[in-house]
Amino acid sequence: MFKYLMLLGLLVATPAKADGFKNREIAYQTLNAVDAIQTCHFLAKGGVKELNPILGSNPSCKKVVGFKIAAGVLHYVVARSFDEETAKIFQITTIVIQGGVVTWNFQF
Fold first, then answer.
1. Which of 2, 40, 55, 101 could form a disulfide bond with 59, CB atoms 3.0-4.6 angstroms apart?
2. Residue 56 falls within a domain, yes or no?
3. Domain of 46?
4. How do residues 6-51 score in pLDDT, each as one tens digit?
């Protein structure tokens, strides 16, 4: 049941609902944070491995959180560097990708 409630909550953080730079950035950063929480939870539970080759197969939660914070800052800086239309395309693309990662994590 918790998984379904969480998934329902994440529907708010979708490109269709994210209008404007700030809202799209909030949607991405929310999904980024959810991915970090999921990763730390599943690694602590054991029996799974991280698929991001930068982090290695069994990173510490501290490493995951540090990486996600750095990725979030970089995402914002890159998005801000683009003109409005390119920023929108970049943000929506990364929201879809990050949303896919979070959805994939629900299988564990």
1. 55
2. yes
3. 21-101
4. 665 555 555 555 679 999 999 999 999 999 999 999 999 888 888 8
